[in-house]
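Person: I keep going back and forth on a fold encoding question. Show me how you would write down a chain together with its backbone fold. Please set it down just below, with no commentary around it:
Helper:
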Amino acid sequence: MSIYDFSVTTITGEEKTLAEYKGKVMLIVNTASQCGLTPQYKGLQALYERYRDRGLVVLAFPCNQFAGQEPGTAEEIAAFCDRTYGVTFPVFAKIDVNGPHAHPLYQYLKANAPNGDGQDIEWNFAKFLVDRAGNVVKRFEPSVQPEELADEVERYLND
């Protein structure tokens, strides 16, 4: 199975597959609106604006599994992202990233990240970098700031 086969639901309830992002470098992040790391939305947006014309897409997957830090409805999450951080990258419906109800995409990401060893997501804002061919090439801990990813993103945009 390829990453492009996964079906996801947008924050507005539309079903799509990740095939829409074939040929792009994807940065996939589990997010939350009420977390100490929430200001990373600003850095994610800046990274997206800087590199989107070269083929980067940031994909945000809200998750309420960590201390209940994403309790809102889809509408509340979308409004928060827009109002607070001016997010223009795709935001998807709330999912689980760990446990028996983990979204299949996250099961795949954890199993295929070269430096993740299939480990559970530890907190909000864990990041996975996927190259243009759909390979999961890197997993970043939540504490890694989006600004720190510029060199890695550049590397895969240039491949």
Notes: Strands lie at 7-9, 15-17, 25-31, 56-62, 127-130, 136-140. The CA atoms of residues 45 and 79 lie 15 Å apart. Helices lie at 40-51, 74-85, 104-112, 150-158.
